[in-house]
Amino acid sequence: MQRSFVQDHGTVDRLAQLGPALYECAVHVTEGSFEKTDNSLRQIKGLASIVDGSLQRLSSTIAYSLARRLLCPIQGFDGALIHPSDYFEQSSIQIARENFANLSPYISSGFATINQAILEALEEEKVTQYFEYAHKMSLSREAEALKVPFQFTCVNGRLETLDFNNLRNTLQIKFGEAIAISCALEMHRLLVVDDNVTCAGIAQLQKMLNIAQLKQMASSAYSPASTLNYPQTPSPQTPKLLASFLNAVGALKPNIMLVMEQDANHNALLFCDRFMEVLNYYAALFDSLHAVAGSNRWRADERARVERMILGEEIKNILLCEGVRRHERHERLSQWAMYMKGSGFNHVPLSFSAIWKLRSVVSMLQDELVSSATSSPASSTTLYNSPSSAALAHGGGYGSWVQELSHDQQSVRLVGLLYQCAAEVSAGAFDRANFYLEQITQLASLDAPHTLQRLAAVFADALARKLLNLVPGLSRALLLTSSSSGSAAGGGGGGAGEAHHHAARRHLFDALPFMKLAYLTTNHAILEAMEGERFVHVVDLSGACANPVQWIALFHAFRGRRGGPPHLRVTAVHESREFLAGMGGVLAREAEAFDIPFQFNGVEARLEEVDPDALRHSLRVRSGEALAISVVAQLHRLLAADDHRSGRHGGGGGGGGSSCLTPLQIIAARSASPRSFGELLERELNTRLQLSPSSDSSAALSSSVLLSSSSPLSPASGTPPPQQRAKLGSFLAAVKALSPAIMVMTEPEANHNAAAFQERFDEALNYYASLFDCLERSTGSSGGHQHQPRANEERARVERLVLGEEIRGVVAREGAERKERHERLAQWARRMEAAGMERVGLSYGGMKEARKLLQSCGWGGYEVVHDARGEGFFFCWHRKPLYSISAWRPAARVQAQLLKRCDLCRRS
Asked: Which helix (H) or strand (E) holds 746?
């Protein structure tokens, strides 16, 4: 009991350090100090990882915003890094807004108060027109059920885009109607001004004030729940856009206008004022959501979705954006009163009835909030917007040189820029890499109509991250984009994020034939290997690429086998318990329909997490059963785990375990502090050069920068080092000990595990250009124009959630974090043979079935061809191999298999 108290006390101490750490980091960002910011970000990450709570999640979002703000002046990197909101879908954002309304008592209470005030203002009116400048829900069915005469008028657009000079016609206002206007959480968007111009003359003074104020907050006692008391300087006049809107509304002579806004000063000119207000305001808001969600799993998913897609995006906009891009300009009630009175509006006091209505709604929610808070394991200590293009993010459209280029010229230019940028990243030339990234982001965008533009946007992001890996704190703070992309796409909750990832993989399965060909060919090989067997055990190690469709097809094949189907067991290894439960249920029903004796086992784990020493026990392999193993696009992940075991990392993006000093530790030991990020990186490269064991400087640079220590094959020897063979070698040795009748493996046919970064980049660019092209052709042939928007949305989901993450893994990550280590079939053959496995030639019957599938589905441009030895297959797009499939078995089984076949021939 005493030990638990000590642990809790230590946790509270660490949480108390988070506030000052965030303020200190903001100081360093304002000063422009990359080294100090990097150290602060690492400290914040360590403190935030202690326990799960609202302040911890808030600190991660703020750390990301500070890291991105530091990079804002470096336009190439800032534009190349993909923003998390680029993964959001409009449907998910709408769900998040509905979750926010359900979880937050403020929204529900505000709506109830607005309704009561409108009822009182329009008490004697017969015909009423009500305008709501907020997000709407379906009303027609409710009006019909309540027998209320109702007409709905929809105006498509944002509040700030309406034509205020013609507002009466835009809103279709009729004379003789009483008018009520509700503007909930939207009017602050009309405060947008180009304050970059306003700030130009006093930029240095502001910077000094920012630093002084933030340093004071960093050194003082921090209480997130405390109210900040600092002088608020009201705007001298109403912003032009807001004034135009209020004048137009005043001309309509509404009976009442109700405004609901966040009561916070997020529109301060000084960054330090905004930062302090954001930290206090959103700490309270995150804490309230944490209390409401409690330990309820579904409500926790909703809370996570709201924090990431609504509140998180608000925070980033307030802290990261300036000028016309900063639209989250919340202000306090006193300031709004000045705006309204200045535009000729009189204050209408809310009646006692409206206040009573507000309190009744709050009391209805009180019991749920209290019960959730008490059931929550730990309440915190008291203490994602439409994406814009990279060009717009820098204050304008494409430059004139871009506009003058044709599409073909832009494509040629893009490819050249990508190769040049990769060369500079490989050499560690920060300034030149930034120069090329700036040009790439003017030509490329995730939402561009052409395939190469979208591909280039993903590669630019990966290249920027690759170079930023030299600064671990900054790099990890920016990992929010990639590590949360799945959950962000789904809105934040774990279940929702997995659902969107599954949806993306399902569309990839539907759009391209490669997985179907892999399943078909694998099943054909298993069927041939299991000829005459009465008890069959199939192990599916395909993880994220697993699909019950594959085994349903195998049921069909076994059912038609001479002698009837065998007793069949399927064991699947997958990290999602929900997926395994669903897969087991589907297969059990299908087996029952086919009258096949069947049993399903699920192993909740990733392939690299399975213990090779306990493989027989984990997979529940029994004697007397013929064993078949299928692994689709997963075996390469064991090559990444080898780096973790050996403790060797390349680049600087790896995890712990290295005995070498990190780049920032080396730099910190020097007397002079680097003044810029470019200088910091140049020093890091010089440090690596000095630490290289080679006396030849050029050789040292080549080995330390161009070569990754995590490569499985040494360029000199062509043989994997013993410590790097450990994980894959142990796994293959364990597989061989199980004596499978056949092991069928499918892998991407690409050399993405090369030692040299430049070679890896070249291979990835060519390989994924082909896959993006396949997807584009599939989208173009997906039906008529009425289906095109949905097809484009599905294609974008695959490009961002599946292929984009793979590209980032190949190009940007190093060490144990680099999971996507695809290799060619020839390399896999050497590995398998070294582990004592023997090739099993895939039959002509399997190729015939695969080609028949392509022909029947009308997949033009795809083909199936033999490898050089005539024993494996390549799945190709326009003659370019993109996937390989091969079959293996323990070499000791070869003679026994030949004798078995001879015996079967004699019997027949």
From this structure: strand 742-748
Number of alpha carbons in the 13 Å side-chain half-sphere of residue 494: 8
What sign has the CA pseudo-torsion 681, 456, 79, 710?
negative
Query: 3-state DSSP: the chain helix, strand, coil percent, rounded to 5?
Result: 60, 10, 30
pLDDT beyond 50 at 598? yes
Mean pLDDT across the stretch 474-495? 57
Token couple for 859: 């997949």
Between vectors from CA 866 to CA 863 and to CA 869, what angle results, nearest 5°?
A: 165
- Per residue in 10-49, pLDDT tens? 555 666 788 888 888 988 888 888 888 888 998 888 888 7
389 pLDDT higher than 60: no
Structure token digits, residue 850 = 């695969």
Token reading at 900: 């078995």
Q: How are strands ordered across the β-sheet holding 128-132?
A: 128-132, 178-184, 256-260
pTM above 0.70, yes or no: yes
Q: Which residue has the higher pLDDT, 685 or 847?
A: 847
Token digits of residue 431: 């300034």
CA 481 – CA 474 distance, rounded (Å): 13
- Predicted pLDDT of residue 406: 63
Domain ranges of the chain: 391-478, 500-640+722-751+820-907, 647-706
DSSP letter string over 374-405?
HHSS-PPP----PPPPHHHHTTSS--HHHHTS
Task: Calculate the alpha carbon distances from 667 to 26, 202, 282, 663, 697 in Å.
Answer: 21, 33, 35, 6, 20
Rounded to whole angstroms, the Cα distance separating 588 from 425 reads 52
Radius of gyration of the chain (CA): 31
Q: Which residue has the higher pLDDT, 409 or 571?
A: 571
Task: Please choose, from the candidates 248, 262, 258, 310, the residue with its C-alpha nearest in 3D space to the C-alpha of residue 132.
Answer: 258
Tokens of 527: 């069927």
Q: Determine the average pLDDT of the residues in 152-179.
A: 87
Percent over 70 (pLDDT), the chain: 71
Please tell me the number of Cα atoms within 13 Å of 119 on its side-chain side.
10
Instruction: Please list, residue by residue across 202-240, b when 16 or more beta carbons sit within 10 angstroms of its beta carbon and e when fewer do.
Output: eeeeebebbbebbbebbeeebebeeeeeeeeeeeeebbe
Q: What is the pLDDT of residue 113?
A: 84
Are 217 and 291 within 8 A, CB to CB? no
Q: Could you count the other beta carbons within 10 Å of the beta carbon of residue 144?
A: 10
Count of C-beta atoms within a 10 Å radius of residue 733: 14
CATH 3.40.50.300 applies to domain 500-640+722-751+820-907:
no
> Shortest CA distance to 562 belongs to which of 598, 591, 523, 528?
528
End-to-end CA distance of the chain: 74
Q: Are 424 and 433 in contact (CB under 8 A)?
A: yes
